[in-house]
């Protein structure tokens, strides 16, 4: 999975002591080109480059006296230096790519591709699409954890909700944000607020709560309804032996669900079997319930401790 | 901390208390207007001081990139030029690197003009800095 690949190399564009400045007209274009190829960049002027480590660093600059020796004070980073004197932006990019070698990295899609609509994942591009929790709004009700079939959510050590496996999220699917009663789930790459992280108004909360009610839209628990429809379809299939009819029914159901929760059709088409959905739902519900129980127990213990403390103090007061 | 410096030892003169600037390119989506992010990048590049740029904060957060923790450590003021503050804060939390309550300013290229963003970031970054 690209999302979990090694840290990409960090490019330091050095224009400090011992280096000539880049051609001013090319500077922003070079930065943009590097970023659009997936490189993080530091422009190091007269200072040091403060980078936390690991991975590799490629230092580029115009060095009149040839590339200097560069050291990594931490000793944890592989540093390569390239003199780009006289190179065009394209040639500089090529020099960086050569210095990168075989190191694998995530690549943003071409701008023209993005402009044409939502981007799907490819071998070289993992679109960073995943839920982000607004911890100031989240009440740890775990509805999203119970809802998500793809193990995106988990529970942190302190029993709070955590986005554990962002790479499991289905690109362009914001469905879990629709089940959050507090509008606490954001998708920063969504096209509109408040799901994109924009401010949340009271009206939004009300509206989201209305939308949330997917279960109501489908007449009950969403997964129960899916199971029921699946069972109905099986019955009809066995009676009528009509695969086309069963497929049409499934499509009708999924279209309704897709419209209600703004779930991309590809996501619904890729859903596992009803049995697997049931297994995953039960597993997620179990985890959510365990987290809530643990949180309640922790709260109870804390309350008990306070009560003990108070009682102790009162007892001490009585004894004197 | 990695400190690349020239062998003659003449590398560092940037004031320690200078505001760090982090620019996010949002390279994997079209949610930040291209004209704004390009104009902001040009303005920063022309400003003559050091700054950091990342292709996409979301992508880094998903990888739980250790650099985010280093940025969030809070030993210097930080200005983040990206998108909605609520989303940016959430991304740092997701990366196990929550931003400190003070000393961080988040500027929004999704809604503000390039001029507004640059005025905010450069006004702050030049406080106490002469690079």
What brief labels describe this structure?
heterodimer, A: 320 residues, four-stranded parallel sheet, 11 helices, 8 strands, 45% helix, elongated, B: 131 residues, alpha/beta, 37% helix, 15% strand, disordered N terminus, disordered C terminus
Short précis:
The complex is a heterodimer of chains A (320) and B (131). Chain A has 320 residues and is α/β, with parallel strands linked by helices.
Describe the structure.
The complex is a heterodimer of chains A (320) and B (131). Chain A has 320 residues and is α/β, with parallel strands linked by helices. Chain A contains 11 helices and 8 strands. Chain A has helices at 24-36, 89-100, 111-115, 143-147, 175-178, 202-212, 214-217, 222-240, 243-261, 265-269, 274-319, and strands at residues 10-14, 40-44, 56-61, 78-83, 132-133, 153-155, 161-163, 185-186. Mean pLDDT of chain A is 78; it is low at 214-220 and 307-320. Chain B is an alpha/beta fold and 131 residues long. Chain B has one domain. Chain B contains 5 helices and 4 strands; from the N terminus they run E-H-E-H-H-E-H-E-H. Chain B has helices at 34-46, 57-62, 66-72, 85-94, 114-125, and strands spanning 20-24, 51-54, 78-82, 104-108. In chain B, helix 1 links the parallel strand 1 and strand 2 (51-54). In chain B, helix 1 (34-46) packs parallel to helix 5. The longest helix of chain B has 13 residues, at 34-46. Chain B is globular, with a radius of gyration of 15 Å.
């Amino acid at each position: 999975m690209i999302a979990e690949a090694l840290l990409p190399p960090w490019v330091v564009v050095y224009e400090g002591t011992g280096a000539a400045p880049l051609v001013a007209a090319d500077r922003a274009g070079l930065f943009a080109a590097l970023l659009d190829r997936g490189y993080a960049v530091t422009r190091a002027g007269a200072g040091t480059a403060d980078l936390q480590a690991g991975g590799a660093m490629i230092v580029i600059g115009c060095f009149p006296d040839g590339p200097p020796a560069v050291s990594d004070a931490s000793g944890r980073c592989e540093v390569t230096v390239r003199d780009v004197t006289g190179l065009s932006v394209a040639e500089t990019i090529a020099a960086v790519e050569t210095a990168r070698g075989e190191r694998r990295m995530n690549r943003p899609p071409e701008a023209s591709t993005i402009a044409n609509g939502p981007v799907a994942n490819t071998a070289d591009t993992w679109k960073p699409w995943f839920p982000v929790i607004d911890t100031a709004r989240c009440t740890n009700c775990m509805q999203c954890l119970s809802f998500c079939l793809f193990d995106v959510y988990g529970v942190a050590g302190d029993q709070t909700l955590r986005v554990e496996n962002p790479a499991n999220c289905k690109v362009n699917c914001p469905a879990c944000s629709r089940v959050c009663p507090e509008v606490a789930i954001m998708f920063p790459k969504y096209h509109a607020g408040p799901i994109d992280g924009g401010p949340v108004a009271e009206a939004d909360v009300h509206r989201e709560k209305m939308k949330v009610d997917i279960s109501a839209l489908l007449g009950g628990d969403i997964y129960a309804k899916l199971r029921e429809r699946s069972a109905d379809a099986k019955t009809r299939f066995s009676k009528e032996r009509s695969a086309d009819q069963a497929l049409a029914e499934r499509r009708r159901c999924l279209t309704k669900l897709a419209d209600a929760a703004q779930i991309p059709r590809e996501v619904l088409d890729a859903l596992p079997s009803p049995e697997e959905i049931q297994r995953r739902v039960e597993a997620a519900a179990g985890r959510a319930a365990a987290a809530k129980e643990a949180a309640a127990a922790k709260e109870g213990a804390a309350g008990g401790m306070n009560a003990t403390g108070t009682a102790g103090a009162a007892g001490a007061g009585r004894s004197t | 901390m990695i400190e690349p410096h020239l062998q003659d030892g003449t590398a560092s003169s940037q004031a320690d208390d200078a505001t760090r600037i982090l620019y996010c390119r949002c390279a994997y989506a079209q949610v930040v207007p291209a004209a704004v992010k390009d104009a902001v990048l040009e303005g920063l590049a022309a400003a003559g001081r050091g700054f950091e740029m990342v292709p996409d904060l979301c992508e880094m957060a998903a990888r739980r990139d250790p650099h985010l923790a280093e940025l969030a450590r809070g030993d210097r003021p930080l200005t983040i030029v990206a998108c909605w503050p609520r989303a940016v804060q959430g991304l740092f939390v997701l990366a196990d690197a929550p931003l400190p309550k003070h000393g961080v300013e988040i500027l929004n290229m999704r809604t503000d003009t390039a001029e507004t963003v640059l005025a905010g970031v450069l006004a702050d970054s030049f406080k106490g800095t002469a690079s």
